[in-house]
Design brief:
single chain; Rossmann fold; about 15% strand; globular
Length: about 300
Amino acid sequence: MRSPVALLIFNRPEETSRVFAEIRRARPDRLLVVADGPRPDRAGEAERCAAAQHITEKVDWPCQVDRNYSTTNLGCRRRVSSGLSWVFESVSEAIILEDDCLPHPSFFDYCDVLLARYRETPEIFSVCGTNLLRRHPRSSESYYFSRYPQIWGWATWRRVWAGYDVDIKFWPELRDMGWLASVLGSADVATFFSAQFDSIRAGTLDTWDTQLLFASMRAGGLSILPSTNLISNIGFGPAATHTTLYDHPQASQSLEDPDRPLRHPSAVIRDEARDHILEQQYYLNPPKPAFSKRVMRKLRHLLSGGE
């Protein structure tokens, strides 16, 4: 397998074991492992971090392995951003998996093909493996172009990461110019993302991926999204940083076989219709966990006089 793989891990050895098994099956020529350190106030976390790291050391195929382990806890925002900066100091392109992003076996070939195909296409920002629109009819092509990168299993190039800024220092100036609404063409969507960008600047949102979206929007970038789902997020639950609900509709989505060979779009043009669906169904009106729906139905029943 040609493309280097970067694996980002923390304190979940069970999930790490499942994701690493797929990397082992793909047998990349180069593996770069980024690990965050334990939080000192969490009992047993040092042992779980060490167990996750130990799993990634079971490399039994010809492979150059590089490791970047933090001895202290940097948190999601600083560890992922600094880790990926380290990755792209070493390699010019990479497939990126977090410890809870379980790939379909064909995900690696899919990334290999598209990283090579769009390597010199500056408007292409990333190759993504997640398909959130599985209830909608498939197109005749194997993937489409979106303004919204999806980071549950993705790939990109050094040229893209060079424009990444974890602190989005240009946001206040662009916000005051009304830039975002002009880019998105929707006041509601602009309001949604403005709040996220403001939270990053205020230091109240501990994330790294919204900054990637900001960099993409600022550069006018497009991301490749597959017509079939190639990544299942197996990390939903109370131990997660952000995806804390087991019964969330996006938890552990099934994997689907991609087209072989890939059917490429005839032109690099954003799919505005599917982007609009993403905006409406996943940003402005995100899907609610099944448990929450049951609770609300029960509350309505009780308030109406039922038992």
